[in-house]
Every structure is written in C-alpha cells, then in structure tokens.
C-alpha cells in the first residue's frame, strides 16, 4: 500500500501528464540531478518521487536507514535498475550522453570473488569502454591501470587472483577500476562497509584528491559519526527526500530524527550534530 | 591397436578422418563458446536450449516435405532447430524476468515441454508416408554413420564464426559475468550481451546436433571450461584452454570410436572430456588436488619451522627431532638445537611478525583476512606497506630478542 503523498509535491503526476509540465527547474551544470525519480520493487516504492541535486567539486553523502532506498537511488541514477518515472541529468545531459563521465564503485558483495581474473584485469575493466570491441589495451593504458593501482596502494598486488585479497583490498581494487575510467563524477555504494581502518583512510584520501581535482563524489554512507569529517554535502533519504544541503545546515538533529524516526536515540543525535537541534 | 593408430593419424578411411576433424573443430568451438556460459553460471540454460532444438527438427522436416522435398536437407533441419531453440531461450528469459519463478523452474519447464513436443512431432513424422524420415532420431545422441563432407563444412564454418565471435565479445562478456551491475553502469546492455552469449551457445548446439546429439552437447559446452579453470586464473585464457581441451576430446573421442566396432561417438567424446577433467582435477598446478596435498605438506614443514623459531625467540629448547632437522638444514640451529646467529635473527623477525598479526586481527575484522592468517605467510604478502607501518606504529619500536 502506498503511503500518502506530501501535499504540493507531485512530480510523478506531472511526469504522467507530460514532461514539459514539471514544476522543478533542472540545474544545467550539476554533476548529478534527479527529478521525480521513483523506483519500485513490485508494488512497493523503494524510492518515491525524489528530487536531488549533487553539487560540483564536493563530496556528497547519501544517508538514511536500511531499506531507505540509498543504493536504489544510486543505481537508478546510473540506469542499472529501471525507473518507474522521473528523469536523471548528468552534467545537465541525459545519462546516455554522459556515460563516459561517470565512474561507479558497486558494493563489494555484488560479485563472485572466485572469478578467474587478476587485480590488474579488474582495473583494466575500467578501460573496456575506451578500448572498444576490436581495440588492444595499449602499453599506455596498462601503465595507466598500474598508476591507478598505485594510487590506492595496491601496486604490489597486480597479479593476484582477486579472491586472495582481504575485503579492504577488494574495495581498493574497485576504486582503482573507477579511477581508470578517468571520470568527472564518482558514484560509490557503501565504500567503507566492512573495510579496515587503513583502507578507509586510503579511500578517503583518494576521494579528497578527486575533489581537489574538481571532480564530484557521491557516496552511499551509513556511518553517521564520520559524515562531518568526510563530506561537504548530505542528502537524507527515507524512501522520500527528507533534506539536502551543505553538511553544516542539513546534517541536523531534526533532519536525522525525521530520517531515522525513533531508531536513533536523542543522546546519540546530540553527539553527532553539535550544531543541530532544529 | 593398429586401427587406433590408423584412426589417430587419419589413416582409417575417409569417413573416419572426416568425423575426427569435424569432432575436433566442434569440440574447440564448444569449449570456447561454453566458457562464458560457465563463468556466468548458466550451464543449465544451455541444456534447456539443446532440448528445445528437437521440435524444430520435426517442424522443419514436416515443412520441407510439404514443400515437396524429401525433408532431409541438413541446413533446413538446423534452421528449424535454431528457431525453436531461440524461442525456448527467450521463453526462459521472459519467465525469469516477468514472473516470480526462479530461473531453475523456468529451465525445467521449458526443457520438459519442448523435449516432449519434439518427441511427439518425431512420432508424427515417423507415421508420415512422404519423405525419408529414417535417421531423424540420431539428433538425440548423434551419429557419425554417413557423415558427409557437407556436414563437416557446416561444423567448420559455424564453429570458426562462433570462436571468432566469442573472442570479439570477450570483454563485454567477461564484464557481465563478473560484475553485471558495473557493466550496466558503464552503459553495456546486459540483457543483449546475455542473449548474444546464449546465441553463441545455441549456434554450437545446432551445428553439433548431428555429431553429438542434443542430450550430450551440454557436456561439451561445460566440461572443457570447468577443466580450463583448473589451469588458469584469467578468463581470457580460459577461452583458449577450454577450446584446446574440447578440441582434444573431440578428436580423441572420434578416434577411439572409429577404432572399435559400433562405439557411439558422442558419448565417447564426452567421456574423454571427463577424463581430461579428472586429470586436471588431480594434477593441475595451483588448483589441483595433488598440488593442494603438496601445499599441505609444505605447510606442515613451515608450521614446524615457525614453532621452532618461536621457541628460539622465547629461549625454550626445541624438543621435536623433525623441527631440529628442518632448522638445521637451513643453518638456523646446530644439530644439537643451539641457535646460530642467522637463527637468532630469523627468530626475532618471526616473533615480531607474530605480534604484527595480533594487531592485524584487531584492526581488520573481516573474514577474508582472518582466513588468510596462517602464521606462516610472510606478512608482507598479505598487507600493503602502509598497513604494516600502521601495525608497527601501534606496536611501538622493535625489541631485542631478550625482551620478547
């Protein structure tokens, strides 16, 4: 059963009536913007009529409780799972036109780690689009892949079969593969889930470097205690959009309460957002 | 024996030579095309596809007789079988995508229904007065009797095209098999690539129908790929190794069946493929059983070595003679068990790594890593330099041997 809609917030209906009627303006240059995005598994919406805009040259976190549609929002933005309605704009364009500007780091659990492939092979997968069907991986591309491995501290592991890595190392390899794509927008699905502290630091260093290079980073994140240290921008979601904005103004006790409901103790919230208390 | 050698060197007559070459080509094509079927974990889909060829054979025969032919045109029969196989494949895909049924249920349903329909149609064909229906049932288990040059050409051309297509599509197919979400995010059409992969499998099935038959073709698609997995950790090499294993089983199987009276070719080929698989299972380096046993023996020796060194570090005497022998052979202790300078240095290193591992277990609480701790693998092989520096930071400065 669908929950009642918030009054005055009905872009899905606009979508059915015709795209031109949509009331929400689309920012032309934002690395990633979604309008009226709705995804459902069966009859139950996982993400309902969400508008979101992720800014350039910053690190954004998608935050929300389990089952709130965080990963779904990310995958739907990428076109990995079909949309029920809504639009996705990548740097102001339809996603098909901006594919090569996006790199994706999926959840570690989504692949078979006994697959016959080495660390180097996985990183080179990030170059497949550029190489094409008939092309050969040139020496320059191999050097580039090696360089990406080096940036995540995995250069010595290039010839390992991927199943022989620890969870943190596997995550680093996935990040290196995304780096190889040389994209402008990086989407990461829980990059810090189940990794060790050294890997978490290595990953955050790489992401901060990307930001300094002018790229945009959007990550599904679930450790509320690190949000302030790692991110500039937050998007709070629980099936619907709850709030979004710079960490200083949007990551507040009130918004977290609205996102998590009774699932977070008030004392915990105070700890997390000393400036909060809306 | 002489017949076997004659057959092996293609001296056992025109038909036997044709069959051997055809079987080798088919085996190569099946092995390489089957690689991604195996890596994508969809082996059983190909079994359903193979069974779904049968009604097509019957339908094609009936249509060709209606049109005034004798119903035995090979290309006509293959086109019919490809058509119903494709319908079966799309049906499985549709059921899995559109209903709540899992793929195994869809496979079971399609396999049974299409095979049943095929048997009924062949029965109808048998009762027809027109056409030359004798021999259609050999599509079930394959037959080499009366194999024509035309049949070998179909296998050679079809097989080469399949291998070429597999090679061209290796990157997208690898990506989809390994990480389909990532492939979709990069803009690959996963559904289309899956259909292409199954299309290649179907092509091999159809060209192999006459020689191996629809019941056993799945074995030729899967066994070589599984065999090849024992020999390499890289998917692109699996394609060629599987092709070679498939080609060798096709050739040897055909030779064996030609050198003994009335041996069925298809089943013999499958048995040869299975024999190569068993040999790989036991003797492949790395993933083979024998290699695993030897690794275990070496492991045992390293356990003794390490326990001995830890005893030295703690300045305990080593009691076990095997341990003393191991360490003495390396010059780490004298035959009476007293450590040499090299032994002392090694002992200090082992003791420090042991404490690094203790830290590592606290820091990394994931199973992949805990599983890799054996106390023996040099810590540098498991962790990156920055990770080890982090352990050392937590441990404090190195201590002398006496402090351990």
From TrEMBL, chain A:
BP-aspect Gene Ontology terms? zinc ion transport
What UniProt keywords are attached to this protein's entry?
Answer: ATP-binding, Ion transport, Nucleotide-binding, Transport, Zinc, Zinc transport
Is Zinc a UniProt keyword of this protein? yes
- Record InterPro entries: AAA+_ATPase, ABC_transporter-like_ATP-bd, ABC_transporter-like_CS, Metal_Ion_Import_ABC, P-loop_NTPase
> Gene3D superfamilies, per this entry?
P-loop containing nucleotide triphosphate hydrolases
Q: Which residues form a coiled coil?
A: none
Region spans: Disordered: 1-20
Classification via Pfam families: ABC_tran
Q: Which domain of life is it from?
A: Bacteria
Q: Does the keyword Kinase apply?
A: no
Tell me where the signal peptide lies: none
Annotated GO molecular function terms are: ATP binding; ATP hydrolysis activity
The chain positions of domain ABC transporter read: 32-264
Q: Which family does it belong to?
A: Belongs to the ABC transporter superfamily.
User: How is this protein named in the record?
Assistant: Manganese/zinc/iron transport system ATP-binding protein
Q: Which organism is it from?
A: Palleronia pelagia
Q: What is the lineage of its organism?
A: Bacteria, Pseudomonadati, Pseudomonadota, Alphaproteobacteria, Rhodobacterales
TrEMBL record, chain B:
Q: Which GO terms describe its cellular component?
A: ATP-binding cassette (ABC) transporter complex
Q: Where are the transmembrane segments?
A: 12-39, 48-68, 74-95, 107-128, 148-169, 238-256, 268-293
Location in or out of the cell: Cell membrane
| Single biological process term from Gene Ontology | transmembrane transport
Task: Give the residues annotated as coiled coil.
Answer: none
Which InterPro entries does the record associate with it? ABC_BtuC-like, ABC_TroCD
Q: Determine if Membrane is one of this entry's keywords.
A: yes
Question: What UniProt keywords are attached to this protein's entry?
Answer: Cell membrane, Membrane, Transmembrane, Transmembrane helix, Transport
Its membrane topology is listed as: Multi-pass membrane protein
Asked whether the keyword Membrane is assigned, the reply is yes
Q: According to its UniProt record, which protein family does this protein belong to? A: Belongs to the ABC-3 integral membrane protein family.
Protein name as catalogued: Manganese/zinc/iron transport system permease protein
Q: Which organism is it from?
A: Palleronia pelagia
């Amino acid at each position: 059963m669908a929950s009642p809609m918030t009054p005055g917030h009905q872009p899905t209906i606009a979508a059915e009536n015709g795209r031109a009627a949509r009331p929400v303006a689309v920012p032309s240059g934002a690395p990633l913007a979604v309008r009226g995005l709705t995804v459902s598994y069966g009859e139950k919406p996982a993400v309902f009529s969400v508008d979101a805009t992720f800014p350039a040259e910053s690190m954004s976190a998608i935050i929300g409780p389990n089952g709130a549609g965080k990963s779904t929002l990310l995958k739907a933005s990428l076109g990995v799972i079909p949309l029920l309605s809504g639009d996705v704009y990548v740097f102001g364009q339809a996603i098909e036109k901006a594919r090569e500007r996006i790199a994706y780091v999926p959840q570690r659990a989504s692949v078979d780690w006994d697959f016959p492939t080495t660390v180097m092979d996985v990183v080179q997968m990030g170059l497949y689009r550029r190489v094409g069907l008939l092309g050969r991986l040139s020496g320059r591309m191999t050097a580039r892949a090696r360089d990406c491995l080096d940036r995540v501290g995995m250069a010595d592991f290039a010839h390992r079969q991927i199943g022989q890595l620890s969870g943190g190392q596997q995550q680093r390899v996935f990040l290196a593969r995304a780096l190889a794509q040389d994209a402008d927008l990086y989407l990461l699905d829980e990059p810090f889930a189940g990794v060790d502290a050294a890997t978490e630091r290595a990953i955050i260093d790489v992401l901060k470097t990307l930001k300094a290079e002018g790229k945009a980073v959007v990550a599904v994140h679930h450790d509320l205690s690190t949000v302030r240290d790692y991110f500039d921008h937050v998007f709070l979601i629980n099936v619907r959009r709850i709030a979004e904005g710079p960490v200083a103004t949007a990551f507040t006790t009130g918004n977290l309460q609205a996102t998590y409901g009774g699932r977070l103790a008030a004392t915990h919230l105070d700890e997390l957002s000393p400036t909060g208390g809306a | 024996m002489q017949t076997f050698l004659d057959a092996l060197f293609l001296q056992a007559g025109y038909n036997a030579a044709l069959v051997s070459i055809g079987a080798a080509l088919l085996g190569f094509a099946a092995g390489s095309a089957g690689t991604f079927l195996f890596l994508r974990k969809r082996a059983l889909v190909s079994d359903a596809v193979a069974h779904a060829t049968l009604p097509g054979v019957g339908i094609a025969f009936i249509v060709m007789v209606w049109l005034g032919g004798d119903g035995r045109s090979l290309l006509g029969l293959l086109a019919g079988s490809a058509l119903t196989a494709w319908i079966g494949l799309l049906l499985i895909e549709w059921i899995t995508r559109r209903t709540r049924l899992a793929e195994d249920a869809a496979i079971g349903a399609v396999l049974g229904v299409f095979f049943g329909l095929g048997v009924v149609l062949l029965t109808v064909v048998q009762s027809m007065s027109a056409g030359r229906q004798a021999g259609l049932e050999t599509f079930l288990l394959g037959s080499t009797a009366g194999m024509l040059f035309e049949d070998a050409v179909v296998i050679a051309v079809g097989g080469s095209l399949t291998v070429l297509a597999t090679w061209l599509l290796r990157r997208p197919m690898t990506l989809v098999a390994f990480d389909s979400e990532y492939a979709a995010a990069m803009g690959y059409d996963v559904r289309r690539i899956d259909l292409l992969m199954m299309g290649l499998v179907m092509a091999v099935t159809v060209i192999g129908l006459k020689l191996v038959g629809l019941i056993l073709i799945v074995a030729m698609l899967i066994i070589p790929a599984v065999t090849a997995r024992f020999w390499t950790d890289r998917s692109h090499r699996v394609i060629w190794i599987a092709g070679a294993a498939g080609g060798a089983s096709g050739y040897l199987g055909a030779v064996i069946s030609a050198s003994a009276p009335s041996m069925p070719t298809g089943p013999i080929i499958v048995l040869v493929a299975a024999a190569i698989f068993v040999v790989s299972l036991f003797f492949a380096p790395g993933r083979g059983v024998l290699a695993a046993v030897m690794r275990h023996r070496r492991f045992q020796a390293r356990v003794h070595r390490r326990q001995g060194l830890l005893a030295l570090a703690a300045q305990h005497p080593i009691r076990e003679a095997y341990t003393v022998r191991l360490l003495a052979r390396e010059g780490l202790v004298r035959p009476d068990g007293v450590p040499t300078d090299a032994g002392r240095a090694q002992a200090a290193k082992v003791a420090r790594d042991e404490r690094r591992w203790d830290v590592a277990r606290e820091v990394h609480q994931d199973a992949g890593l805990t599983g890799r701790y054996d106390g023996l693998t040099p810590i540098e092989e498991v962790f990156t330099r920055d990770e080890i520096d982090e352990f050392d930071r937590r441990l404090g400065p190195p201590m002398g041997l006496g402090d351990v």
